Amino acid sequence: MKKEPRFSIAVLPGDGIGPEIVASCLEVLATLHERLGGITLDYRHIEGGAAHYQKTGTAFSADSLEQCRQADAVLFGAIGLPEVRYPDGTEITTQFDLRFELDLYAGLRPIRSYPSLPRVLVDPRGAQIDLVIVREQTEGLLYSRGRGTLEADNIAHETMKISREGSRRISEFAFRVAERRARSKRRTAHVTCVDKANVLSSMAFFRRIFTEVAAAHASVRADCAYIDSTAMHLVKAPWDFDVMLTENAFGGILSDLAAGLVGSIGLAPSADIGDRHAVFQPAHGSAPDIAGKGIANPVGQILSAALMLDWLADRHGEPRLAHGARIIERAVERALTTIRPVEFGGKDGTPAITKAIITQIRKE
Length: 364
Prior knowledge:
single chain; alpha/beta; ten-stranded mixed β-sheet; two-stranded antiparallel ribbon; 11 helices; about 20% strand; globular
């Protein structure tokens, strides 16, 4: 008899609201398990983050890193506490450590609106926002993290790194995402390279490599735009965008801006993907000011788990996992028609949102 597949998932709840939303997500996945036809997810909880650093002097141990390396995927909560910092004044950002250690070069940030929730934008097209930001995560300006210099307490230097290979592989990733979205949504694929090529030679180089890659994807509409004008356009007409490709620091800013346009960063999932490893976590931070109050929105965490199932399905040729991801996405959309999260002026916190999503999964 053929053994049903088992997948090892390293779970890092982290700080602030991280443990609460991860617990919600695991509860949803436990309910989904009934629908996966024998597929098992084995969870291994590991410690790391600001509180762990405060307690042990180490944000993330070598053993924890090795467990992430050996796992089939990593499910991540949230990391960081504003008052806990390294000696240089920067915050604990274990997610950055994982990106560089595991070569998770592609940041995937899907942003979509939910018509049942209050809209930020007056224009009715605000209910149609559906885009993806793809950010390069091992180079760019944030490559300088831990490498910056301070001269005589007078001048600080940071260095942007842009390489041909780094730019090529993230461009290829963006076009694959656009082609996949075009097939599933039955629309023309479109990738916009967002840069500052008019001022920075590194960005001009990034644009040149993007253009070379675009030539091999004739079915995808490709264009380029400057970061400043794109930020304005994103606010005025976010429905014009499909896949936005950009550098590390720019991508972080655009991701939060885009999440604000759909009403809450609590709705936004994310994935950090490499050729062999991947980490899945919500786009928001640890929000320690609301930790323990039961009002955190777990939707971003739960949708990040759906991204994880999709990635595992592709990597292991297991369509049942992709089916599970669609079940989660539909359950979230339906649940949001019956509840109103706190950040949207409602009274529904973590337990109510979790229960509503589980109820919808069981109706599938």
